[in-house]
Design a protein that fits this description.
Helices cover 41% and strands 26% of the residues. By secondary structure, it is α/β, with parallel strands linked by helices. Helix 2 runs parallel beside helix 4. The longest helix has 22 residues. The chain is globular and about 45 Å long.
């Protein structure tokens, strides 16, 4: 079966909390990740897509569980891309970065990959067939699960 026809092999959460409470919950979740990282390989990414005038861009930042910046990437996605598609492209890139990292240094235990997204629309797109970037994200997720038994969380 083609990977884009399969459901995304990740735990997806869209918070229904108001922003101040969601921020507090997020801080609590990060503290749990910091503690858990001592026992399990943990990868943390933040993604974003934005539009200014006719320019649309995407970015990914990888943090250590302790909060240090490990890597950053940003790029122009072109004038014809919607913001939600730029967000989906950023999620795809975060998954690709995780895959490259695991290929370079396979962990002894199944890793957890946490991707924090500020767009509910982008998260919802991952649950459908979606654009080419959604299809590639699904294929990468499938590869991460099959090759590394990864647990993937998109919030």
């Amino acid at each position: 079966t083609a990977p884009w026809k399969e459901p995304l092999q990740a735990t997806i959460t869209i918070s229904a909390l108001p922003k101040p409470k969601a921020a507090k919950q997020h801080a609590s979740d990060l503290e749990q990740l910091r503690q858990q990282a001592y026992f399990q390989p943990t990868y943390v990414y933040y993604t974003d897509g934005s539009k200014e005038g006719s320019a649309t861009g995407a970015s990914v930042v990888q943090f250590s569980p302790e909060g240090a910046v490990i890597s950053t990437a940003s790029w122009n996605t072109g004038p014809w891309i919607e913001v939600a598609d730029a967000e989906s492209t950023a999620i795809e890139e975060a998954l690709q970065q995780a895959l490259r990292g695991l290929q370079a240094q396979p962990p002894p235990d199944p890793p957890e990959i946490h991707i924090f997204v500020d767009s509910q629309a982008a998260i919802q797109r991952l649950q459908g067939y979606g654009s080419a970037s959604v299809q590639r994200a699904k294929a990468t997720t499938q590869q991460l699960v099959q090759q590394y038994n990864a647990y993937i969380y998109i919030t």
